[in-house]
Design goal:
- The protein is built from eight helices and nine strands.
- The N terminus and C terminus are likely disordered.
- By secondary structure, the protein is α+β, with helices and mostly antiparallel strands.
- It has a seven-stranded antiparallel sheet.
- The protein is elongated.
- The chain folds into two domains: 68 residues, no CATH class; 148 residues, Roll (Chitinase A, domain 3), CATH 3.10.50.40.
- It is an enzyme of class 5 (isomerase).
Length: 276
């Protein structure tokens, strides 16, 4: 199977001195005009991209005066005379940095509180088990296949799985349920690693990860969602096989730093529930 890995462009600030001559030095090649439908799609893509970059920097719609934003955008695209003056301002970037830090701290505090409250209640529910690390799991279907064995599978096993990662409010962070993927141990989600090591092949479990077993104090922004620091996560996973893993190959998918190995028709056979 193939994975499409989104490329997030890195946009660096342009100094006022360089910006004023940008249009004069940049040679734009002539291209045929896009069709109306293509131009609409292209514009929608660019609008979405700009919005995501703003959200990534903790700028919300409530922070923006739309009329002023579009006027400045149009001026900038047309090499308006106000560019140098705007970019010379020091107060706005400083304000945005302070605002971003404050918002992230507030979100992190709220996420920690919500996560702790959820896990305290969830851990008392019938069928939910809490491990010594704080990981909670529920067995939705227990398989009859083999479980992780260090002697057989090594220190970095590879698990063939389908899974969905959600926030506590139900927002889907990653969804790989259409096809199986191979998830390597030692991902950045310690709770995911621990849970997989407990599952027999053929099982379907739900993991409830406290923040210290998820992304901890990292503020995560992906192409489709934003995770404040201290966020707890819910992972629904179905385990199809276990094998000794490849410790060198890493993939980043949908902005979530799990380790993945693409499925290969010629790959080593995995143990499956049917073989038991």
């Amino acid at each position: 199977m193939k994975y499409i890995i989104p490329l997030l462009l890195s946009v660096s600030p342009i100094s006022a001195e360089n910006q004023t001559s940008a249009h004069a030095t940049l040679q734009v090649p002539e291209i045929s005009r896009l069709s109306d439908d293509s131009q609409s799609a292209y514009s929608s893509y660019l609008g979405t991209y700009i919005a995501l970059q703003l959200l990534k920097n903790d700028v919300t719609l409530q922070d923006i005066d739309i009329a002023s934003f579009f006027q400045a955008f149009e001026d900038g695209m047309n090499d308006g005379t106000d560019i140098k003056q705007q970019l010379a301002r020091k107060d706005i970037p400083a304000h945005l940095n302070r605002q971003s830090e404050t918002r992230r701290q507030q979100l992190a505090e709220e996420a920690k509180k919500i996560g702790e409250q959820f896990l305290a209640v969830n851990g008392k529910k019938p069928g939910v088990t809490t491990t010594a690390s704080g990981l909670q799991y529920r067995i939705d279907r227990q398989g009859t296949g083999t479980s992780y064995n260090k002697k057989q599978h090594g220190t970095n096993p590879t698990y063939t799985v389908k899974y969905t990662v959600r926030t506590l409010n139900g927002t889907v962070v990653s969804d790989f349920t259409d096809e199986t993927v191979e998830a390597a141990d030692h991902s950045r989600l310690e709770g995911f690693d621990e849970g997989l090591s407990l599952m027999p092949v053929g099982s379907q479990w739900t993991f409830f990860l406290p923040s210290h077993l998820a992304f901890g104090d990292e503020h995560i922004v992906t192409a489709s969602s934003m995770l404040p620091a201290n966020s707890a996560l819910i992972i629904q996973v179905e385990l199809f096989g276990i094998k000794k893993g490849d410790e060198t190959q890493t993939m980043y998918i949908e902005g979530v730093p799990f380790e993945f190995i693409p499925m290969d028709a010629d790959a080593e056979e995995t143990e499956t529930a049917d073989e038991e």
